[in-house]
## 1
Amino acid sequence: MRDVVKIENLSYFYPYSEVAVLDHINLSIKEGEIVVLTGPTGSGKTTLCLTLNGVIPHILGGKLDGRVLVDGMDVLEHDVAELSTKVGIVFQSPDVQLFSSSVISEIAFGPENLAIPREEIRERVSWAMELTGLKGYEERSPAKLSDGEKRKVAIASILAMRPKIIVLDEPTTGLDSIEAKRVISLIESLRNKYRTTFLIVEHREHILRLADRILLMVDGKILGECKPRDLFDDEKLMNSAYIRVPEVVKLFHLLRKEGVYRGRIPLTVEEALPVISRVPIAPSTVKSCNAPKDPRANEELIRMEGVSCGYGKQEVIKEVNVKINKGEFLALVGRNGAGKTTLAKCMVGLIKPSNGRILLQGRDIRDMNIADISPIISYIFQNPERQFFSMSVEEEVSFGPRNLGLSEEEV
Ligand SMILES: Nc1ncnc2c1ncn2[C@@H]1O[C@H](COP(=O)(O)OP(=O)(O)OP(=O)(O)O)[C@@H](O)[C@H]1O
Ligand SMILES: [Mg+2]
């Protein structure tokens, strides 16, 4: 099988930086292969992805040494538009790539640019929407979708271009379990049907399991590669790979340490079930653990009474009642687009309810301004880019405390 991606001795420096973010990388990917790239935050995974369609260096600048070939094309000799016909990238943050006024025009944009006949564009758009579960969203504005829905549009818009190579930078972040499964079966079916090649950045086991090869990236270098089974079988390797270890894998490593299990480590509950019944676990080794109750837990902090809210005429939250006490840890769960973010924004005063009332420490939020609200409740955005506006990390982090009127010393 031939190599569709070939990277030789690649080093890269962002503009005005003397640190090599990519450091002498060599990598070949065969047609139809699924390669998963993992490694700690800031290790250079996204940067490596961006070299494949020429965004690095043609748009972001900087200094690139070595060679990157995609389907035989040297990225230095072709522009981003040409390279995009071969490589489709779904960015880590979908906001970066969505700009059209409707979902359907967003997905049609790529094939329209490739000068594909109308009828075929229609077919491709419909196919991509079907695969990503976006039927019914045709006329919605991408800017007004939930983050999970945006990610699906970003994936669909790349699928519609039918690129040979698809690069997915953390594709299941923010997706609920059903949507994540949809992405997984999409990857498998595209590979099997069209021999599409995938480079995927991920830390989660459900994607790692799909990989033909897993590459570990640290400080701009690819330190090594392995098969998924070997990774999950080797505790030391797993700990150095910065991945999320499935609970079932942790359990079997524990049993192995206890000396009661000697076989291969199962990766899923389904694989574990036939094995676990043969593991001799003494009842005394199973201990229950109850977290101590927080004594402050009776002090009410937030109360929502019959709260409804939404965007324009569209009501997203309908008559919600919630009570949250001091020291409580609450998880808000639900499918993509169910209204979790909207509810949270409502709770911190970023969206006004159309009905009902919200009390923070007994005070109605309508009578409070940001200065009153922010010492009680803070909101960290799903997409961190939306909350940044300063020029440096230090300025950004000190903005909040300074705004609260703290002394410079304390800030
Ligand atoms: N536009 C940029 N200009 C300068 N430096 C950058 C730029 N983008 C990223 N970097 C730096 O390059 C390094 C690698 O970043 P990159 O985004 O490739 O990491 P990553 O492995 O994808 O991390 P994460 O897991 O957090 O997404 C980091 O030190 C980062 O601070
Ligand atoms: Mg990244």
## 2
Amino acid sequence: MPDTLPSWSLADLYSSASDDNMTRDMADCRDRASALASTWKSRLHEADAASLAGVIEDYQAISETLGRLSSFADLAFAADMSEAETGRMAQSMRELESEISAQLVFVELEIARIDDDHMDALMQSDALASWSPWLRIVRAWRKHQLSDELETMLIERSPSGRAAWVRLFDETAASLRFPIDGQDVAESEIMDMMTDPDPEVRRKAGLSRSEVLDKNSRLMALILNTIAKDKSVDDRWRGFSRPVSARNLANDVEDEVVDALAHSVTSRMPDLTHRYYALKASWMGVDKLNWWDRNAPLPGEDPRQFSWDEARKMVLTAFDEFDPGMAEVAGWFFDRNWIDAPHRPGKASGAFSHPTVPSAHPYILMNYSGKVNDVMTLAHELGHGVHQVLAGPKGHLMSSTPLTLAETASVFGEMLVFRRLLDSTTDPVQRRALLAGKIEDMLNTVVRQIGFHNFEERFHDARQKGEQTPDAIADIWMETQADALGPAIRIDETYRPIWGFIPHFVHVPFYVYAYAFGDCLVNALWQVYSTAEGDARKDFVLNYLDLLRAGGTRRHDEALAPFGLDARDASFWSLGLDMLSGMIDELEAELVQAGLVETAHGE
Ligand SMILES: [Zn+2]
């Protein structure tokens, strides 16, 4: 990189780890939490509207201070994980957090327990009305809550129950070593090798992964079976009708909407993944791709390097074309040192935009090396960042969105920059690489995750009938993945044990569909935006910014209504999938025109 990359300054949170304000804020959190608990614990049902609003304000203020402390600790740790002091600070903030949340857990539990008639009466007051989006979410669990005694027992027993199985999974996964040419390597290296340009390296990595997972499949099957059984007991006590239902409630979305998404994506798999992988195989000069070649680099990578200044200009120009106000907010991240971009030893890998707290501002961490992908990552994180800034005025409790809307601004921001970059790229090799890269990302987010979701649905249903052997689990895996990948990907016996290392299946059952939900939702929005003209386009921009400012106060149906969209409708999901299919058409046409594939593979 020719130019220098910016490093963030965390001084807007605290001046340093020895800042006296940190000690003061920690003591303040403890004092206020104790005072709130001693005044109101077991008494919230007696509170009148004004007192209840006061309790919520206090609760928010304590949570925000706690959020400032833990954000500082987390960010300092991410910037340098090798420093013992930042590790110690992050750990002590986690302990403070669990101490305070144990003390204040009564607030949400008791609010959820207030009976509906009494709550309706309280909500007549203006003081409480402004909290109604938050109250709705807190009270959504009302029907599924158990008695205080049972809830307490479940929390206390968790470390020796579910949490212990998750830990066993994590520790086992971290300890696995994969033999490659007489050496033992860790899983992250194996994953890197699977995107190596050399097919022999990819083959060895795939086979080694398969072999090691196969040897561990009995343990992994026991863990997955236990997690599913534990969940089904919980679901039965709490009155959830299907294995997926509790997760849907946490995501603030109805079962039918998730079913419509899964069904739409599954029915379009031939037109999406099957068609794309056939195209990729033909482009790479083979009939079929082995499963370990699925993410193989394409012939002719986009070799362009972008300096930090070029990346900044590209993102800000694309945002500015959409709306100058959006570019202005994004500009603050560069002008005010809210981004940490360079690679450094000890720094966390990957990228994120941490919202911290509304009384401060978000911070972005990334590892910039100047590739096209890095520019897209910058656009993605700045999309999150702008969203977090705009939603800030909703306050700490209501600024963050439900999971279904969490990726809206990031994926949309990325799309603005991607389209601009593609339009300004004339070199056919670069265009093909750009398009194919974007398509692969989207297929991995949308189709692959729904393939995983279909596996989870079938596995949890089967588990209700009894324990599943590793072989039975592998059968479900192979059937669902064959559907998701299509005939151009060769999956043989060696693919059977690969289910064993999808951490989400263990960490948070039914989490994966949220990725597809978010991406498809943005793609549908993008279709509306890109086909709107004149006043309709202006309206779109206003509605979009309004959606970002709403933070967590709107659920998906309220958020989408101004755009004339409805996620309960199957045609909504088709709209987003049409966009993805259209991009595959674009790539196919360019490949055929360049004589790189023989004919179009339309099915
Ligand atoms: Zn994101």
## 3
Amino acid sequence: MGRMSKDPRVENSIHTDFTHHMTYGEYLQLDKIVDAQSSRSGHHDEMLFIIIHQVSELWMKLILHETKAAILSIEADDLSTAQKRLARVSKTQAQIIQAWDVLSTLTPSEYMEFRDSLGQASGFQSFQYRMIEFMLGYKTPHVLEIYKKDLVLHQQLEEAYREKSIYDVVIRALHKAGIPIDEEVLERDVTISYQANPSVRDAWMRVYQQTDQYWELYELGEKLVDIEDCLQQWRFRHMKTVERIIGFKKGTGGSSGVGYLKKVLDQRFFPELWDIRTEL
Ligand code: HEM
């Protein structure tokens, strides 16, 4: 036995001839992904800044994929599949919350070295983030303007803006289960951000007080709470990380910066699911 055979990676069965087979890199199109980190400033720390955004956008892609599928499952009355998908959404959100720890290693002095090279680019223009907000029911038509220069993105976002959110679909599921919901909620204009309604609060009270009878809706309600909880944690960590790196300077997107990010924290997605906790 030669010295080479002691290497645990050397096994006769390992494939090494890929002339006619697809490799790992080809399957994942890694040539595109790992070639997309072009630094504008040439500064060492810009790599972290680019990768953290790209990784977050990739996870957002999965969040959208799973949330879309969950909406379809709820509409098809398959609540257990929807729960499975939404559990994956909140686990994915945990990854992008954790990502702030890596970005926190970027100091104000390091960021200032390359901040000017971003121009007016800002996460404020994140298409996928707006798609997620629309799907969760926070409809802000003014953000559509940003995508005017890309007709495909503009159209996709406009469609999501006109679609029912996951909460609209869940409220319909409550109604289908025989729980009274006001007609004005079922017929509401879904291009407007959802506003709390007493019949929806009563419906959730019923579900949370009679869990045996409404087990699947109860579990679904908790999945929505997980998602809103994670989204708020993400927003909070973003705001605090931004304060840590730029203090109270204005954002590259033109907003007041931390002040703006604090204000966004007040916005709620599934208000009754939080309100009932005081009464239960
Ligand atoms: C040094 C790091 C970062 C700084 C200083 C920063 C700063 C800001 C500021 C000031 C805003 C408000 C809009 C503006 O005026 O630009 C904003 C918005 C936003 N940023 Fe960041 N950000 C950072 C990292 C990230 C990362 C890693 C992501 C992940 C994708 C991200 C995603 C977003 C999103 C989605 C918004 C829109 C929030 C909303 O409108 O509710 N940011 N950012």
